[in-house]
């Protein structure tokens, strides 16, 4: 798996429903607004529609920002579940609440009340919609506090696993998640960075299993809370997203959105800079070999007259110019990438 994209991941028959609650009306959330969530939804939506990553048709990528009732969360999921023939990806970002009785996860909307799960959507409704969808593979990504509780499966938890489903949660069970100080929330920002930069050493198409393992390593290296993944069936091995690391891919979408906030450096610039950097790096061995061979020839020619010296100087100058160009490309890619990640 991974060298080709299977029919189950065909973007023409696949759907994504991206839901984010960034604004809350109740005073209990006066200090709990989540402006980064709006950026999460728009950024991920653009990336999933990008033909160089997945290429979902615009009509198959639904963005729901600041729902004001449980039905505004679950209805778009049910509608996509009724139409999908490929992969169904559901993403939620916002505050999560826990039941004090059985530790079940609840997803909040703009009118939810902090500490009152009854005012939010029971995650079991989402699980039910996924269970009865026509999708051969289902992906649930949760960026909220206590997201790991969605992975608690088994009789003791009163929940039933859904075969063909992959759940990627921002946290371990019963654990809050940091909000983040940049343009995106912490977990989604790390996920976007991984999708944007790719995974070294992996195949042309990335699976959710590969992404989750790389995400765990990336977040551990940054001292961030560990995400949690649960795969039922072999959906975790489904080749889904193009790996931007190993292939010179520049977005075909003419204008990527800019993310407001501390990280507002223009993600598209970062995408192009990092892609150019990788292309430049791969060209280095050939350039060095050609330059070395050329200099040897020039040295031999120099023994026969000034023409050889001129050639040697020209080749050395060309090599120096290329090295400077490579250094500038690497510096730009690293600087912009660091800015957009923060």
TrEMBL record:
This is Peptidase C14 caspase domain-containing protein. Keywords: Membrane, Transmembrane, Transmembrane helix. It comes from the Bacteria. Residues 15-199 form the Peptidase C14 caspase domain. GO terms for biological process: proteolysis. One of its GO terms (molecular function) is cysteine-type endopeptidase activity. It comes from Actinoplanes digitatis. NCBIfam families: caspase_w_EACC1. InterPro entries: Caspase-like_dom_sf, Pept_C14_caspase. The chain crosses the membrane at residues 283-302, 309-336. Pfam families: Peptidase_C14.
